[in-house]
Specification:
The protein has helices at residues 5-15, 29-40, 48-51, 55-58, 101-120, 137-143, 193-197, 215-220, 228-231, 243-246, 249-254, 275-279, 284-291, 300-316; strands spanning 19-23, 69-76, 89-92, 126-129, 148-149, 155-156, 164-171, 203-205, 208-209, 237-239, 272-274. It has 317 residues and is α+β, with helices and mostly antiparallel strands.
């Protein structure tokens, strides 16, 4: 029996994905040009790996030679914020408050691939990633009809706004593609709330973000000291930033608390970190005891302490 697009979406839902779209593995010249320009302007900052082997990002066939279809999957992670940040606390971005989404999506993808292979009963190959693979996931998600890319560079969906994790599967199974226009996800029109709200002016222009100024990049990926003129604008944020999503009108009308218990605050570090507790961590073992199994291991002990020191200084100022 050959796998159909309808059956695939049924399996995706059973495996725990909230969204599933299908598209062809054609190259996307407009997205290639935008990405190349972004790299040429050094908007990728110190993330040198993004600039390497960039042709692999443009052509799915370089990742899987006989690829016939691209499957884009989405999971809602939204949870509401408290009304304010308590004194002495640092704010963690919504997506990182529970368990590490990479591991959660890995389990769900393995479940889905098992069902695909069992149903298809023909020799086939798959490759998949969440956000660490060399793949232009948002442009392909847009092409698969999951949403549209807003002025803050985020994929905005009709069902959940931009509060979703995106992952993808390349497969040698030929599936009927979805049409990008089948669902009306809305438009940004003249709205510039995300651009205006960014404290560091990281959104240079619609759909163009300078990572050198982005609080998410600075608190998670930047290995070096953060300039005072930027750090002073972080407020209480110690890991990531949700501001451009918080102000988006589409998100305000579509935010639905996640049904995935793995993202519950009780399963991770929660909404806030105690700033002094982090600064008092004695060694790497203590750091891992606090952050293991969550995305907060990414900036390492020194990076997280640096961020908490900035938040403490901002609070005192």
């Amino acid at each position: 029996m050959k796998l159909t697009s309808t059956k695939l979406k049924e399996f995706a839902q059973i495996a725990g994905f909230d969204l599933c779209g299908i598209t062809t593995p054609d190259r996307l010249p407009e997205s290639e040009a935008k990405f190349t320009k972004w790299i040429d302007k050094s908007y990728h900052a110190d993330m040198d790996w993004i600039a390497k082997n960039r042709s692999r990002r443009f052509d799915p066939k370089e990742l899987l030679g006989n690829v016939k279809s691209v499957i884009i999957l989405g999971i809602n992670y939204y949870q509401p914020n408290s009304e304010s940040v308590p004194k002495g606390k640092g704010l963690v971005s919504r997506y990182a408050r529970g368990k590490d989404y990479h591991k959660i999506i890995k389990k769900k993808t393995e479940n889905l691939l098992y069902r695909i292979d069992k149903e298809n009963q023909e020799d086939c190959e798959h490759k998949w990633w969440v956000d660490y693979g060399p793949f232009l996931e948002r442009p392909y998600a847009e092409k698969a009809g999951l949403g549209y890319i807003g002025k803050n560079g985020m994929l905005i969906t009709k069902q959940f706004g931009s509060w979703i994790f995106i992952s993808e599967i390349l497969t040698t199974i030929e599936l009927a593609p979805d049409q990008p226009t089948d669902l009306e996800h809305g438009k940004c029109t003249t709205c510039t709330l995300c651009i205006d709200a960014c404290p560091t002016d990281a959104i240079v222009k619609p759909r163009l973000v300078d990572s050198n100024k982005c609080i998410s990049y600075l608190t998670i990926e930047r290995p070096k000291t953060i300039p005072d003129e930027l750090a002073s604008k972080f407020g209480a944020m110690v890991f990531g930033c949700d501001i451009c999503q918080d102000v988006c009108p589409h998100n305000l009308s579509r935010q639905r608390p996640t049904t995935h218990k793995e993202f519950d605050y009780a399963n991770g570090v929660g909404e806030f970190l105690d700033l002094q507790e982090v600064l008092n961590l004695k060694d790497r073992e203590a750091f891992l005891k606090l952050t293991a199994g969550t995305p907060l291991t990414r900036p390492k002990e020194d990076g997280l302490k640096r961020n908490c020191k900035i938040a403490l200084n901002n609070e005192q100022d």
